[in-house]
Amino acid sequence: MSVDGTWDLVVETPIGRQRATLELSTRDGVLRGVARDPERGEEVVLGDLVVDGDRLTWTQSITRPLRLNLAFDVTVGGDGMTGYSKAGRLPRSRVTGRRART
């Protein structure tokens, strides 16, 4: 299954919904990704990207609205994804995403 493409992501956090755009692409057999938060002007390279069947995991560090190291674990089905993100000792946050139409 290919996860390549642009994804509109929503993370339900204790401080409200956080939105980001993920851009995932495979080059030379290696999955790469970037998360963008246009509202806060932040762009982050994703780390530890792994696809295992329908499961996608990655890590990223953000500085806004708080400085956090996040770990994501989602299930991808067609043009949708659902799962969770975790930031240290904070409770996990629900994640949903839709593949953007081109």
Write structural notes for this entry:
- This protein is an all-beta fold and 102 residues long.
- It contains no helices and 9 strands.
- The chain has one domain: Lipocalin (Beta Barrel), CATH 2.40.128.120.
- The protein is 0% helix and 70% strand.
- Strands 4-3-2-1-9-8-7-6-5 form a 9-stranded antiparallel beta sheet, with no helix packed on it.
- It is globular.
- It starts with a strand and ends with a strand.
- The mean pLDDT is 93.
Note the main attributes of this structure.
Lipocalin; 9 strands; mainly beta; nine-stranded antiparallel beta sheet; 102 residues; globular
Radius of gyration: 13 Å
Number of strands: 9
Number of individual domains? 1
Poorly predicted parts: none
Helix and strand arrangement:
Elements: E1 5-13, E2 16-27, E3 30-37, E4 42-45, E5 47-52, E6 55-62, E7 68-77, E8 80-86, E9 93-99
Antiparallel strand pairs: 1-2, 1-9, 2-3, 3-4, 5-6, 6-7, 7-8, 8-9
Task: Summarize it.
The chain is mainly beta and 102 residues long.
